[in-house]
Amino acid sequence: MADIVTVALIGAESTGKTALATALARHFDTEWVPEYLRIFVDHFQRVPREQEIPIIALGQLRLVAARLAETRRVLFLDTDLVTTCVYQRKYFGSCPAQIEQMASDFRADLYLFTQPDIPWEPDGIQRSSPEERDVVHELLLQELDHLELPRVLVSGNWDQRFAMARRAVRALLKSRRHHPVGKRVTP
Asked: Which of 37, 71, 124, 133, by CA, is between 20 and 30 Å from 2?
C-alpha cells in the first residue's frame, strides 16, 4: 500500500466535493471515501453534538482504512480531518488535541480545494447558508496556509473543475513514479 497516494477534496459546503470525488474515482478506475459526517447525519437525522465529534473523526479514518485495502494507485477522500478540525473550532470553540493529532498523523498527499464559485444548494440539516459557506471557505484557506498543505485550487464550471482536478492528479501520479512515496502513516 505504500505506493497509494491520497487526494482529499476540501472545501466549504456545497462546492461539489462529493460529485468530484465520485467522478475522479471513476475516471482513474479506483475508490473514493465518502464523508462520514454525512453518513452520521443521515442515520441520526441530526447534526452531531460536541462530544460526538471524536466518533466522526474515527469513523472517517475507518472508512479510509477500509478503502485503502481496495484501492489502486490513488484514493480520493470526500473530506478529511483537517476539515473536521476547522468545523470543530468554528462551532465548538476548539478542537480536542486527540483529533488535531489524528489530522496531523494522516494527511493527504494532495488537497483539491474547491472554490465557492458555484451556486449554493440547500441539503437538509447539514448546510447553513451561502454566507456561512464563505466564512468556512476562508477558515479552510487559513488552515491550508497554516499547515502548508499541498493544494490545487479547483474552480469554474463542472468541466473546468473536472479538468483541473484530473490534471493535478495526473501530475501527482507522474511525480510519484519518479519519487516513490516514502513511509506513510495509515489510519
From this structure: 37
DSSP per-residue letters across 42-83: HHHTSPPPGGGHHHHHHHHHHHHHHHHTT--SEEEES--HHH
Looking at residue 13, what DSSP letter applies? Answer: T
pLDDT digit string (tens) for 6-56? 999 999 888 889 999 999 999 999 999 999 998 998 899 888 899 999 999
Give the separation between CA 84 and CA 140, rounded to whole angstroms.
10
What phi, psi does 157 have (nearest 5°)? -75, 180
Neighbours of 171 (CB within 10 A): 12
Contacts of 152 (CB under 8 A, 6+ apart): 110, 111, 112, 113, 164, 165, 168
pTM of structure: 0.88
- Res 133: pLDDT: 83
Residue 113 corresponds to which cell in the numbers above? 480545494
**Which residues make beta-bridge pairs with 77?**
8, 33
Contact 85, 104 (CB under 8 A): no
Between these two residues, 55 and 131, which has the higher pLDDT value?
A: 55
Q: What is the pLDDT of residues 162-176, one digit of tens each?
A: 999 999 999 999 988
